Amino acid sequence: MLVDKLNELKEEVKLKVDNANDTATLLEIKNEFLSKKGKMSSFMSELKNVPNEEKPAMGNLINEAKKFITNLIENKQKTLQEKELEEKLQSERIDVTLPGYNYHSGSKHPMNIVVDEIIDIFLPLGYSVVEGPEVETDKFNFEYLNIPLDHPARAMQDTFYITPELLLRTQTSGLQARAMQANTLKTPLKIICPGKVYRRDDDDATHSHQFMQIETLVVGKDVSLANLKQTLDLVAKKMFGEKRSIRLRSSYFPFTEPSVEVDVSCACKNKQTCPICKGTGWIEILGAGMVHPNVLKMSGYDPDVYSGYAIGFGVDRITMLKYGFDDIRQLYNNDLRVISQFVKER
Ligand code: DAH
Prior knowledge:
By secondary structure, this protein is of the alpha+beta class. Helix content is 39%, strand content 19%.
C-alpha cells in the first residue's frame, strides 16, 4: 500500500536526519529524498497507477509526507548550522590580550619637510612641480645656462663628470632650460623643481658632495624684479615667520641679470652674540635674479617679448637654519635619533 510505503519512508528519513551530524550529510539526505530523481518524486509518478477516486486523497498524503520531510531537514539544518558556527567561533577564538606587533612607522626627513613646505607655498600661486635627471648633459647643466665650455663660472662648481658630455648635475638650474625647451608653444611658465645635486667637495660641517636645491622659474610677459622681490618676501615670511623681512644684495650668476643674493632678517635678540647671523642681523638664504636674455633665447623664448625670474634655494642650508643643525653631515648620516625628531605630516 502506498500509505504504508509513505510511512516507512518518513521513518527512514527521520532516522537518517536524527543521525546526521553535519550539514554535508544532511545535504546528501536532502538529495536522496527531495531532489528531482529522489525517492519522493517516484511516489508522484506512482500516483498515475492509483484509481481516479483515490487520487486526491493520495496526492494529499504524498504532499503531506513531502512537507514533513522538508520540515525535518530544514529544522535539523538550522540546528547543525548553529552548532557549526559555534564550533568555528570556539576554534578561531582571538586572544585580545596577546601583545600586538610593534610596527615602526617612519617619519619624513627634515629636508623633505622643508621641500614640502616650500612647494606648498608655491603651488597655490600657480606653479607646477617639475623634476629632471640627476645624470645630466653638459648642455643643460651649463651651456643652456649661459655657461659655455671655457666660462670661469664652471670652476665654482667642481663637477663629477661621467663622460665629457655627461655629468652628475651640479645645480637644478638646468631644469629651467629643460622646461622652456619642452614647452614648444612657448607660453608663460611657472615651475618649481626640487632635486639632489652633486659637487666634488670635501665634506665638512658646511659642505657635502651631495646636497639639495629647489629651482623656481617664472617666464611671462612683463615679469619684473618687483615680482621677484614680492615672491621672495612672501616665501621668507611663510617659512620663517611674519616678522621676518628680506634684503637683496647684488651678485653674479651667469644665467641671471641682474642677479641677487637674498638674506632674511635674523630672529635673534642680540645680534652681537648671535652665532647664526654672526653680528650682521641677516642670514643668507638663496640666490635669485632675472633670467638672462641669452638663456631665454637659447631655449626658444624671444627676450624682447618675454622676461622671467629664477630662484635657487639651498634646501640643506634652510633646513639647518630652521631646525638648528650645526653640521650638514647630520642630514646625511642616517642617524634615526637625529632625523626622526621632525615628524610632520602633509
Ligand atoms: N644654481 C645656483 C647655484 O647652484 C643657484 C641659483 C642662483 C639658482 C640664482 C637660480 C638663481 O635660479 O637665479 O649656485
